[in-house]
């Protein structure tokens, strides 16, 4: 399957191989990841906008609850106001008596003075001796036939209606409408408390998105855009369909733009109906800024990729040109011209190859001379070549031989019931394999801990009950990137210098903890500890590049690697009490893609 592909790739020129490799390994993955990141940022912006809008609607809902409580409390007080009952139900024979009654009853004006949430209070009665004065109104035929009046008369609860009285004004306002029964007179009337339109609009004026308050019939009673007041759901000018059922988050087309609509409801106490709060934002308005940034970033990314491609093309051209020159020199040697000398300069692999080629040509000439000089020398050369080949083969024993040998030992021990020895041999094989294969690339903290656990299990096999350990790993740190073999030397140091002299009760604790943007790693033992003067010497030795004492090389190497990898702010911190134990701590940046960067974070 792979052989034809490999043969075809071998026929492709190096220049094209490099370009194809760049496109498939660098350009396409970067563009693919960029597309995923773009989609993520767009969705994140929309999610944040929805969350913000939901919080804003909840705040408006709380403000509306507070505002509506004012007319409800007023209506509850007027429901049992005997003075109001007397004013409404008295049969007036003289206009003077009516004027006096109006003058003495100032509760409506007092409520209007105290509460800016309301703009008018009116009471509609069927008492024919009443004269209209914008507070007490006689029910006319138009009022009696109106929908709001019929709703109030036929309901025992409070109703919130967007209404007006054409005898007073053509401007509609959201009003509390409530039937009041006078048991002493066996009569009734309708109380109307109009809410202040300016107060309603002020609740919505600071909202970042278009926000509206609607009554149960779908009429806009207040809005951030005051031109929308009086419009109804389904109105083309409003642009919002009337199929929004109950509170929730809807995605609809509003005025030709895909938008998110957040809907919530306000249902005051003792009410037959409530109000609906709607907040709308166009998706495009939310992602516009992120789209602009993404567009700029994409342009820069493409520019960088194109620049890299151009740079790669120039390098590949230089490489292939020099290789072509070397190939021509080789062709001359192939035709028998052993006086060829390659003049390709440079200290890179091609330059080295050129110099090796010259050496090879000289060697060939020398060898050919030697062939003609003596058969004996030729024989010795052949024997020497065989010995070299044997040594090369011997040096090429694959590390898998060691692993396979350990696995065979483990299986023998397992078959014979030596489970502990089999387990330790398996851990030893795993430890050796990891040490050989890990190289200089970073590993995860979880992978490092698996290596340490294998090492500790082997040491525990050696020390028995004299050694115990605990791994306290914060789940948030498992995938954090870390240089390889950065913790194991600290654990080894704790065993050798801290616990090896203890007869029992030795304990090592390896602990990781996520702290904001860093990960703290501690290696703690309850061993012999370090005297204060010795501890200060150890701390000073960490800063020395040349080793002065062999048993501290591991600590110094770890300290220097941390500083080279992450900067001067990172390194080992050692605290110890003689006879109580030692704690070695260090921190690394909390990132999953941190690479060793030679001192740059």
TrEMBL record:
Residues 317-369 form the HAMP domain. Keywords: Cell membrane, Coiled coil, Kinase, Membrane, Phosphoprotein, Transferase, Transmembrane, Transmembrane helix. The keyword Phosphoprotein applies. It comes from the Bacteria. It is a multi-pass membrane protein. Residues 43-70 form a coiled coil. CDD domains: HAMP. Gene3D superfamilies: 6.10.340.10, Histidine kinase-like ATPase, C-terminal domain. The chain crosses the membrane at residues 20-41, 293-315. SMART domains: HAMP. GO terms for cellular component: plasma membrane. One of its GO terms (molecular function) is phosphorelay sensor kinase activity. It is found in: Cell membrane. Its main location: membrane. InterPro entries: Bact_2-comp_sensor_kinase, HAMP_dom, HATPase_C_sf, HATPase_dom, Sig_transdc_His_kin_internal. This is Sensor histidine kinase. It comes from Paenibacillus kyungheensis.
